[in-house]
Amino acid sequence: MKAVKIIAISFLVYVGIVITFESLIGFFQPAGETTLVITTMAEDGTPNDRVLSRLESNDQLYVSANHWPRAWYNRALENPKVQVTLEGEKGNYVAVPVTGDEHDQVNDEHRHSIMFRILTGFPPRYFVRLDPR
After folding, report:
1. How far apart, in whole angstroms, are the C-alpha atoms of residue 26 and residue 29?
2. pLDDT tens readout for residues 27-75
3. Number of domains making up the chain
4. Which residues are 85's β-sheet partners?
5. What is the distance between the alpha carbons of residues 7 and 5, in angstroms, rounded to a whole number?
6. 94 touches 61 (CB < 8 A)
7. Buried b (16+ CB within 10 A) or exposed e, 113-128
8. CATH assignment of the domain containing 25
9. Cα(50)–Cα(6) distance, rounded to whole angstroms?
10. Are 85 and 36 in contact, with CB atoms under 8 Å apart?
11. What pTM was estimated for this model as a whole?
12. Which one, out of 11, 47, 49, 108, has a CA that is 20 to 30 A from the CA of 85?
Protein backbone atom coordinates (compact mmCIF):
# COMPACT_ATOMS: atom_id res chain seq x y z
CA MET A 1 0.00 0.00 0.00
CA LYS A 2 2.88 2.36 0.77
CA ALA A 3 4.36 1.77 -2.71
CA VAL A 4 1.03 2.67 -4.33
CA LYS A 5 0.95 5.95 -2.38
CA ILE A 6 4.51 6.79 -3.41
CA ILE A 7 3.73 6.07 -7.05
CA ALA A 8 0.50 8.11 -6.90
CA ILE A 9 2.23 11.08 -5.25
CA SER A 10 5.13 10.88 -7.71
CA PHE A 11 2.69 10.85 -10.61
CA LEU A 12 0.78 13.85 -9.26
CA VAL A 13 4.02 15.78 -8.74
CA TYR A 14 5.06 14.96 -12.32
CA VAL A 15 1.68 16.11 -13.69
CA GLY A 16 2.08 19.32 -11.68
CA ILE A 17 5.52 19.92 -13.20
CA VAL A 18 4.16 19.38 -16.73
CA ILE A 19 1.20 21.71 -16.14
CA THR A 20 3.48 24.38 -14.67
CA PHE A 21 6.00 24.14 -17.53
CA GLU A 22 3.31 24.22 -20.23
CA SER A 23 1.51 27.12 -18.53
CA LEU A 24 4.69 29.18 -18.24
CA ILE A 25 5.56 28.65 -21.91
CA GLY A 26 2.03 29.63 -22.92
CA PHE A 27 2.05 32.70 -20.69
CA PHE A 28 5.49 34.05 -21.54
CA GLN A 29 5.62 32.89 -25.20
CA PRO A 30 9.40 33.25 -25.50
CA ALA A 31 10.37 34.77 -28.85
CA GLY A 32 13.70 35.02 -30.62
CA GLU A 33 15.57 34.51 -33.86
CA THR A 34 14.27 30.97 -34.25
CA THR A 35 10.59 31.81 -33.73
CA LEU A 36 7.69 33.23 -35.70
CA VAL A 37 4.21 34.43 -34.81
CA ILE A 38 1.26 32.65 -36.36
CA THR A 39 -2.12 34.37 -36.41
CA THR A 40 -5.11 32.06 -36.61
CA MET A 41 -8.79 32.98 -36.55
CA ALA A 42 -11.27 31.84 -33.91
CA GLU A 43 -14.77 30.83 -35.01
CA ASP A 44 -16.04 34.33 -34.20
CA GLY A 45 -13.34 35.91 -36.39
CA THR A 46 -11.11 37.01 -33.52
CA PRO A 47 -7.42 36.79 -34.45
CA ASN A 48 -5.18 34.81 -32.08
CA ASP A 49 -1.39 35.10 -32.05
CA ARG A 50 0.96 32.35 -30.91
CA VAL A 51 4.74 32.37 -30.85
CA LEU A 52 6.11 29.14 -32.32
CA SER A 53 9.49 27.70 -33.14
CA ARG A 54 10.32 28.04 -36.81
CA LEU A 55 11.44 24.83 -38.51
CA GLU A 56 12.89 24.52 -41.99
CA SER A 57 13.30 21.42 -44.14
CA ASN A 58 14.00 21.23 -47.89
CA ASP A 59 13.49 25.00 -48.21
CA GLN A 60 9.99 24.67 -46.71
CA LEU A 61 8.74 26.46 -43.58
CA TYR A 62 7.13 24.37 -40.81
CA VAL A 63 5.79 24.75 -37.29
CA SER A 64 4.89 21.99 -34.90
CA ALA A 65 2.33 21.36 -32.22
CA ASN A 66 4.51 19.73 -29.58
CA HIS A 67 2.71 20.77 -26.41
CA TRP A 68 -0.60 19.64 -24.96
CA PRO A 69 -2.22 23.08 -25.39
CA ARG A 70 -2.69 23.35 -29.14
CA ALA A 71 -5.67 25.59 -29.83
CA TRP A 72 -3.66 27.40 -32.54
CA TYR A 73 -3.16 24.08 -34.35
CA ASN A 74 -6.85 23.19 -34.25
CA ARG A 75 -7.79 26.68 -35.51
CA ALA A 76 -5.25 26.35 -38.35
CA LEU A 77 -6.79 23.02 -39.38
CA GLU A 78 -10.29 24.54 -39.31
CA ASN A 79 -9.24 27.66 -41.24
CA PRO A 80 -5.88 27.09 -42.96
CA LYS A 81 -5.56 30.70 -44.17
CA VAL A 82 -3.16 32.08 -41.57
CA GLN A 83 -0.91 35.06 -41.21
CA VAL A 84 2.73 34.64 -40.22
CA THR A 85 5.07 37.28 -38.86
CA LEU A 86 8.60 36.21 -39.66
CA GLU A 87 11.61 38.44 -38.94
CA GLY A 88 9.29 41.44 -38.62
CA GLU A 89 7.53 40.83 -41.95
CA LYS A 90 3.89 39.75 -42.11
CA GLY A 91 2.72 37.41 -44.84
CA ASN A 92 -0.26 35.29 -45.77
CA TYR A 93 0.14 31.52 -45.73
CA VAL A 94 -1.83 28.32 -46.02
CA ALA A 95 -1.34 25.86 -43.14
CA VAL A 96 -1.01 22.37 -44.60
CA PRO A 97 -1.08 19.39 -42.20
CA VAL A 98 1.97 17.17 -42.65
CA THR A 99 1.71 13.38 -42.64
CA GLY A 100 3.57 10.28 -43.76
CA ASP A 101 7.12 10.48 -45.06
CA GLU A 102 7.18 14.28 -44.93
CA HIS A 103 6.22 14.18 -41.22
CA ASP A 104 8.89 11.57 -40.49
CA GLN A 105 11.56 13.58 -42.31
CA VAL A 106 10.79 16.85 -40.51
CA ASN A 107 10.55 15.05 -37.18
CA ASP A 108 13.90 13.31 -37.75
CA GLU A 109 15.57 16.63 -38.64
CA HIS A 110 14.13 18.46 -35.62
CA ARG A 111 14.07 16.00 -32.73
CA HIS A 112 13.42 17.17 -29.19
CA SER A 113 15.69 16.26 -26.32
CA ILE A 114 14.48 13.74 -23.80
CA MET A 115 14.43 16.49 -21.15
CA PHE A 116 12.03 18.60 -23.25
CA ARG A 117 9.80 15.58 -23.81
CA ILE A 118 9.76 14.81 -20.07
CA LEU A 119 8.91 18.42 -19.17
CA THR A 120 6.07 18.53 -21.70
CA GLY A 121 4.56 15.19 -20.73
CA PHE A 122 5.34 13.36 -23.99
CA PRO A 123 2.61 14.94 -26.16
CA PRO A 124 2.10 13.69 -29.71
CA ARG A 125 3.81 15.92 -32.27
CA TYR A 126 2.07 17.29 -35.34
CA PHE A 127 3.57 19.45 -38.10
CA VAL A 128 2.10 22.11 -40.30
CA ARG A 129 3.82 23.28 -43.49
CA LEU A 130 3.33 26.99 -44.14
CA ASP A 131 2.92 27.59 -47.87
CA PRO A 132 2.93 31.24 -49.05
CA ARG A 133 -0.31 32.32 -50.73
Report:
1. 5
2. 777 777 889 999 999 888 899 999 999 999 999 999 999 888 889 999 9
3. 1
4. 37, 90
5. 5
6. no
7. eeeeeebbeeeebbbb
8. 2.30.110.10
9. 38
10. yes
11. 0.84
12. 108
